[in-house]
Amino acid sequence: xxxxxxxxxxxxxxxxxxxxAAALFLSAGALALTGSTDVLLAVLALLFEKSTLxxxxxxxxxxxxxxxxxxxxxxxxxxxxxxEGLLIVxxxxxxxxxxxxxSVWLGLxxxxxxxxxxxxxxxxVCIEFRADQIIAGLAIWLIALGLAPFASTVVFGSTNASAxxxxxxxxxxxxxxxxxxxxxxxxxxxxxxxxxxxxxxxxEASPMVYLMFVAVGASWWTLNRTSFGRWVHASGExxxxxxxxxxxxxxxxxxxxxxxxxxxxxxxxxxxLSLGQFVGNGPTMVNGKGFIAIVTYLLGNYNPVGALLSxxxxxxxxxxxxxLQGQNVLAIPRxxxxxxxxxxxxxxxxxxxxxxxxxxxxxxxxxxxx
Length: 370
Known about the structure:
By secondary structure, the protein is mostly helical. The chain has a single domain, classed as ABC transporter involved in vitamin B12 uptake, BtuC, CATH 1.10.3470. It is built from 17 helices and two strands. The protein has helices at residues 3-9, 12-32, 37-47, 50-75, 83-101, 104-128, 133-156, 170-175, 182-194, 207-225, 227-237, 239-244, 249-275, 289-299, 304-327, 334-337, 340-352, and strands spanning 160-162, 277-279. A two-stranded antiparallel ribbon has the order 1-2. Helix 2 packs parallel to helix 15, helix 5 crosses helix 14 and helix 14 packs across helix 15 (304-327). The chain is globular and about 65 Å long. The chain crosses the membrane at residues 56-73, 78-98, 104-127, 134-157, 207-223, 254-279, 291-315.
């Protein structure tokens, strides 16, 4: 059996483990060429710092939520490459609502609402009017890319806007819960765990990081253990059989696309509200995270757990390059350092990204079609 065949026979988690190890090996090998062994050791030390894990978790949130949304849409047969646009509008929507209400939680809901409305527009155009899904997705991205900075300029007088507040830490939430045991013993336990090297970052994370893990588990359960998940799968693989069973394919696809809007909305609002601001310059603060999300769920083979692992791989490499720039460890130009996560993911995707699109992905279907 060839090496390629052996890799293709591995399960999703095993393939991702191999891919992650390959990415780290390729990155370390490339870095070793730029300097001495001391440089490589310094890079590895940065990789296992608590701050690197903290940054990786923070960077993972918008990508993971967008990836989960893309999985639901595409498995139902609708290719949603407009995830970037959904992240952009929800990032602005979250900041706008928060600036009005003073509540990040209402801001989160506002970002979700805006993203869901844009996803509904996308669903109507693709399902009702049978538009080309790729072109419609690009249109959603371009609309959001222009609309969000314009709205920010109209409302705040600048393409950049401040929310005035950010998400509280999990420790602060527990401390303010008012529950006798949770607000004292729980906070003390978190503080102790936060002191653990490297893994302590897990206990200092934003509530959105914990919500990300919950969303991944809930998405996996929904897709694999519920009737709706089976309908989504059938809608993307054999819509005729689903229609014959008495389930409206269009309704399933509408629900899946709207769910992608909800999930992407959480990711976009979490991105801006974690920083307390919306940045609308250039490609905006989203800066390609929606397109990276598409790569992660393809590498994860439409498995929510696989998509999360792929996201953590990219986010970890991205956090590493940020640390490398801050510490100035490598004697190479900073623009070249910034390419490390993207080049690594491209190489891993080319070598290990074996996936199969749903049979009816991108195809239109109306009830009664033969």
